[in-house]
Amino acid sequence: MLNWLSRQMPSLMLGLLCVAGLPQPANALDPAKAITQYVHTVWRTDDGLPQNSVTKILETKDGYLWVGTQAGLARFDGVRFTVFDHTNTAVLSDDYISDLVEDRDGTLWIATVNGGLASFRDGVFSHFGAIGSRSGWSLAADSDGSVWIGGVGGLKHVGNGKVIKVYTTADGLSADKVGQIAVGRDRSVWFGTPAGLDRLANGRIQAYSIKDGLPNDMVTGLYPAADGTLWVKTRNADIVRWINGRFEPLSIPDVVGGTIRDVLLDRDGNLWIASGTEGLVRVKGQQVSRFRIKDGLSSDSVASLYEDRDGDLWVGTTSGGLDRFRDGSFTTYAKEEGLSVDQTYSVIEDHAGDIWVTTSDGLDQLHGNQIRVYKSDDKVLDTWALWEDHASNLLVGTSSGGVLRLIDGHLVSMLSERDGIPPLQVSAILEDAMHQFWVAPRGVGLVRFVNGKASLYSTSDGLRSNGLYSLAEGVDGTIWIGSDNGLNSIRNGHIAGYSTGNLAGAWVISLYFDSSNTLWIGTFGRGLFRLQNGRFTQYTTHQGLPDDTINGVVEDGARNVWIGTDHNIARLTRQDLDAVAAGSSPSVTPLVFGKGDGMKSSEAEGGTHPSAWRAHDGRLWFPTNRGVVVVDPAHLLIDNRPPPARIEEMVADEVLIHSITAVRLPAGTRRLEIRYTAPNLSSPERTRFRYRLDG
Questions:
Q1: For the residues 625-633, what does the mean pLDDT come to?
Q2: With pLDDT > 70 as the criterion, what percentage of the chain qualifies?
Q3: Per-residue pLDDT averaged across 412-435, rounded?
Q4: Which residues pair with residue 19 across a beta bridge?
Q5: Can you give the pLDDT at residue 18?
Q6: In this predicted structure, what is the pLDDT of residue 661?
Q7: What beta strand segments (E) does 432-580 contain?
Q8: Which residues have CB under 8 Å from 281's CB, separation 6+?
Q9: Using the 8-state DSSP alphabet, how is residue 228 labeled?
């Protein structure tokens, strides 16, 4: 993100910039998730890339992501691409970037196909024509700060800006054309040629060929893994790995298909393959997963792969742009993962630990990562509410068929027009401590169902409305009823109404009792209410809520309150909520989650019950309009470290200053502009800045 300060200067000023960071994900990709469950983002030329053919990707120590393309080099801070090419950077005489590497001292080395070698340090580009000539194809950094350069003419070893040695066939190279280089943990240098694989160790070159276990003498890729092994790709996409002094064939299922252009073994042991025709491929043992254009990938032709320091996976394609996959605090189960449809309404956990979800096209059961879909025998597919009774029977409220019971895998009618009541659109079901069933339909009133007999309560009995949306039972046996015209309760047959302040006439769409028997009341457009010790407290966007429509409420194991809204899901600390209720604080500070945290839609659903659920393992479930989502409050992917602040450029009286390591402004300078950023690749939208100018 690029920001700037601009000031008129009566005298010389000293600029001091500091940055504050908000929570941001910082974990590797969870191998248990499907690729479709990662947070996926795409950048193209419309977003600032110089070209959609991405050849190389590298994150440097200062937090920037550098992207090489066939039409220039781009530096990315998480929001903005800064492009360097022959039109604005003279040393980049060729825009086709073939390789990128950063040395120990933080210098970025840039190899181009026909323009030789360049470097970037402290905002300044330099060209090394004599070192790289016009043949710098591949690069590798050594731990001693030197750099290895491969291309036509052999292998060059460069240190302190000078060539230390050039290795050719005269020194034992298999060929004078070096296309790939890798430095091992033991500082041995591997390089691939069209005639075999060579290893330089202790000043001696050893050559390997088919007779030593290579599938083919033409080496087309070298990929050092974090565990010290070396993966070698040869012609025809055969892959072996060097381990314990020998080559082991890698058995990749035939379903990978296509030309393999890049390989990456991530920190969790997943093998990622860049296919020329089949998109992105993940191999875990013999389990193969693909992610292609139909799943949202920018192109099925993948050219390059890169894992950054946070464990995010970056994917460069030959024509679609730059893709990124990262893990989020939330995991989504939608149609792509096997759900009947994306639209979900309610969620509950049964006695066996299975998760049940109502949808617009049936009832779905999640058993681990397996999903089973149930349909009604009466073809009523639009299921809304859920409840499990004391006998472990699952009850399902529908949009037009009353209440169904799941028996031996079949949905059969439990309460309908045949029981002498009007057609029911069931928003909520509840079985109380006395094993009486309460049903909240829309437009009919409250239904009590006992021993096969139904009785009806309506506005004539004291309800504020017959349009009901939510139910909850307190520890004293009182049943609370949320309607489109406020809040009611019923106890021992007596109905009471509540019209306190802004709660009067409110559309109450969610009700929830927490572990302290506090009642939380979610409304449409009027925020969240708390009823504790007979006192109501209202929380709205004026008190810090991210939204005034509260579709679902649930408490986590630390007694924090989570809310699902029309625009996000948020965590509210009990301390903040109590402080506002006591009048000692004007607002809460929510931790807000959305699409950037693993949700495919940030809109949580409400108006049916339960619209949020805490499972026995402590995880929280929310229905959304693009699947059901789950989060573990005890293991949020959060990193409170602030991203590094960087001053990129300064402009003094219209004169651009690129190098800002030591700036001296001439006397009489009237205007100074400081352009700064804080590279944050995971969640730049959560970065906040502070700055101060002294002088």
A1: 97
A2: 91
A3: 88
A4: 689
A5: 41
A6: 67
A7: 437-441, 446-450, 453-457, 468-473, 479-483, 486-491, 494-498, 508-513, 519-523, 528-532, 535-539, 550-555, 561-565, 569-572
A8: 256, 272, 273, 274, 275, 288, 289, 290, 291
A9: S
Beta bridge partners of 84: 73
Per the model's pLDDT, the better-predicted residue between 11 and 83 turns out to be: 83
Mean pLDDT over 246-272 rounds to 80
**In this predicted structure, what is the pLDDT of residue 73?**
98
d(CA 341, CA 364): 9
- In the structure encoding, which two tokens stand for residue 607, read together? 């108006």
Contact status, residue 372 vs residue 365, Cβ threshold 8 Å: yes
Residue 448 neighbours by CB under 8 Å, 6+ apart: 436, 437, 438, 439, 454, 455, 456, 457
Model confidence pLDDT, tens digit, residues 77-106:
999 999 999 999 999 989 999 999 999 999
Mean pLDDT of 12-19: 40
Tens-place pLDDT, residues 521-548:
999 999 999 999 999 999 999 999 999 9
d(CA 649, CA 591): 33
Alpha-carbon span 31 to 280, nearest angstrom: 15
Residues 6+ apart with CB under 8 A from 552: 510, 512, 522, 563, 564, 604, 605, 606, 610, 611, 612, 622, 623
Count CB neighbours of 582 within 10 A: 9
At 574, is the secondary structure helix, strand, or coil?
A: helix
Output 286-293 pairs: Cβ under 8 A, ≥24 positions apart: 286/251, 286/253, 288/253, 288/255, 288/256, 289/34, 289/35, 290/35, 291/35, 291/36, 291/40, 291/325, 293/320
- Alpha carbons 553 and 568: distance in angstroms, whole number: 13
Q: Please, are residues 155 and 173 in contact by the beta-carbon 8 Å criterion? A: yes
In angstroms, the CA 385 to CA 396 distance is 6
Going through 569-645 in order, the beta strands assigned E by DSSP cover: 569-572, 591-593, 613-614, 620-624, 627-631
Quickly state the pLDDT bin for 134 (edges 50, 70, 90). low
Where are the strands (E) in 524-585, listed by range?
528-532, 535-539, 550-555, 561-565, 569-572
Residue 556 token pair: 């986590």
pLDDT grade for 594, boundaries at 50, 70 and 90: very high
User: Residue 108: enclosing H or E segment and its boundaries?
Assistant: strand 108-112
Phi, psi for 90 (deg, rounded to 5): -60, -35
Beta bridge partners of 562: 554, 571
pTM of the model: 0.88
Query: What is the residue type of 248?
Result: E
| Structural tokens at position 446 | 């409250």
Residue 222: partners with Cβ closer than 8 Å, 6 or more residues away: 180, 181, 182, 190, 191, 192, 197, 230, 231, 232, 233
pLDDT of 659 reads 64
Q: In this structure, what DSSP letter does residue 269 have?
A: S
Q: Tokens representing 162?
A: 């000078």
Who contacts 610 (Cβ-Cβ below 8 Å, separation ≥6)? 346, 347, 348, 386, 552
Strand 147-151 versus strand 271-275 pairing type = unpaired
Q: What is the DSSP letter of 131?
A: H
Average pLDDT, the chain: 89
Side chain identity, residue 226: A
Residue 129, H or E segment: helix 129-132
Amino acid at 134: R
